[in-house]
Amino acid sequence: MDFNKSWYDNISIEDGILDIPYEQIGIERTRIGFGKFGIVYKTTCNLFGDVAVKEFYINDQEYTENFINEVRIHNLTRHKRIIQFYGISRNVEKNLYYIVMEYANHGTLRDFLSKKNSMDLKERIRIATQISEGLSYLHNKLNVSHQDLHTKNILVKNGNIKISDFGKSKCFKHLNNKSSNKIFNNSSFTLYKMSDVHSLGVVLLELSNYRKTLHKEQPTSKICLKKDRLEIREKSRFVSNFKLKPLEPVYLSADKKSYVNAHDF
Ligand SMILES: Nc1ncnc2c1ncn2[C@@H]1O[C@H](COP(=O)(O)OP(=O)(O)OP(=O)(O)O)[C@@H](O)[C@H]1O
Fold it and tell me: Domain Protein kinase spans what residues (predicted)?
């Protein structure tokens, strides 16, 4: 990839990504989220109605690469459990670039859970199943590992799950060769998938531990997720506290070369 000024036109043409003229993104915007790369707004777009736009300030190669990776992987997805990717846009004078996508009206799963007064087991199983469907699609149909799965990247639209944020994702197939189904370094992919499954476990724990009004009496032991920390309490006594983060794949092979390749990919 040539990282000169034409990179934007290149990804738009090579990947068939829709370039949405900046004027078509509404100027009335409501801030709905904030992440490492910038602000996420709710606005309207002539073509799609209500949309979420994720804004990136891009002024160097690293930011360009991150944007391209996220756009290319998100653009591969077409599934009801994945937030729909619509296209990209830009304001060249301000170095601002946008991912335009489906708007999830119920926000993040974390907020959705915290606002609920009660949630029965059937509903929790429904949500868990939908998250698993989305992750299974990424792993088994696209050969994509998400790498940042948590309840703030899992969104809810009309009560249904939509996985989002492909900023850290990795695709284990040729992104710009659609006819090729060749999967790179299968063993690395297995490890990356395991890391996602670990994250899924943490999400399911958060979902299963949701018990706001479910039990009148306090459970004797309580596991709760606070931001990125897992706390375990016994009869209200603090027992343990872990800092959680998605597991980095660990390479068991002593072959340094394949380790480097997997991370450079
Ligand atoms: N399509 C959407 N619909 C509704 N809200 C959204 C949407 N996309 C993002 N958000 C909101 O914006 C927040 C940040 O979005 P996102 O995680 O994609 O940004 P990020 O910069 O990659 O964040 P981080 O690096 O911290 O994971 C989300 O947690 C969510 O609250």
Answer: 26-265
- Using only the alpha carbons of the chain, give its radius of gyration: 20
What's the CATH code, domain 109-264? 1.10.510.10
33 lines ligand 1 (CB under 6 A): yes
CA distances from 107 to 42, 132, 137 (A): 11, 19, 22
Q: What is the DSSP secondary-structure string of 159-206?
A: TEEEE---TT-EESB-TT-TT--PBS-HHHHHHHHHHHHHHHHHHHHH
- Ligand 1 pocket test, candidate residues 54, 83, 100, most atoms within 8 A of CB: 54
Domain locations along the chain: 7-102, 109-264
Instruction: Let me know the angle formed at the C-alpha of 61 by 57 and 64, rounded to the nearest 5 degrees.
Output: 50
Instruction: Retrieve residue 44's tokens.
Output: 């309207």
- Quick check: 225 and 205 in contact, CB under 8 A? yes
Tell me whether residue 54 is annotated as binding. Answer: yes
Other C-beta atoms within 10 Å of 131: how many?
A: 21
Q: Respond yes or no: is residue 148 known to be catalytic.
A: yes
256 C-alpha to ligand 1 centroid (Å): 35
- pLDDT tens for 24-65 read 998 899 999 988 878 999 999 989 999 999 999 998 899 999
What ipTM was assigned to the predicted interfaces of this complex?
0.95
